[in-house]
């Protein structure tokens, strides 16, 4: 069901080739929203997200040094704020953060349906309430595997996709 499909990524780290692959994949799959858990790095990465056919919810990562530049570059794409932040989308309450310190406690206190984080560059997908999603690294720099996730918010089903195979 396309109306409730969300693309999730983190740790893009200026890898424009991978960003372009992720954006093309999200557009092909007809996602209604993209959630980015931080570490864009440079404001010029917004150029690749301009091709995205839906809005974004975003947080800064620990390596996002030029925050004013990122805010300016992404102002037309969606909401970019420091994390952790809570928002509502697709009928679900989300907690979006970059770093994962106190993850379970923060998620419980916020009483959310979905938690998305990044920072570790490692895939972490846990069913339940809340669903916890770290889509791994979209850049592929550290682990050698560039991944993103798709979440069907109606069925609450998560699909991890390798950008090399997608």
Describe this structure in words.
The protein is of the alpha/beta class. It has a single domain, classed as Purple Acid Phosphatase, chain A, domain 2 (4-Layer Sandwich). The chain has 4 helices and 11 strands. Strands 4-3-2-1-10-11 form a 6-stranded mixed beta sheet, with helices on one face. Strands 5-6-7-9-8 form a 5-stranded mixed beta sheet, with no helix packed on it. The chain is globular and about 35 Å long. The two termini are 19 Å apart.
Topology (SSEs and partners):
Elements: E1 5-9, H1 16-29, E2 33-36, H2 46-49, E3 56-59, H3 67-74, E4 78-81, E5 85-89, E6 92-96, H4 103-110, E7 114-116, E8 123-126, E9 131-135, E10 147-152, E11 157-162
End-to-end separation in angstroms reads: 19 Å
- How would you state the average pLDDT, rounded? 94
List unreliable stretches of 5+ residues. Answer: none
What structural class is derived from the secondary structure elements? alpha/beta
The CATH class label is: Alpha Beta
What is the helix/strand order?
EHEHEHEEEHEEEEE
Radius of gyration: 14 Å
CATH homology group: Metallo-dependent phosphatases
Q: Describe the sheet with the most strands.
A: 6 strands, mixed
The coarse silhouette is: globular
CATH T-level topology = Purple Acid Phosphatase, chain A, domain 2
Would you kindly provide a brief summary of this structure?
Helices cover 20% and strands 31% of the residues.
Highlighted features:
20% helix, globular, single chain, 4 helices, Purple Acid Phosphatase, chain A, domain 2, 6-stranded mixed β-sheet, 166 residues
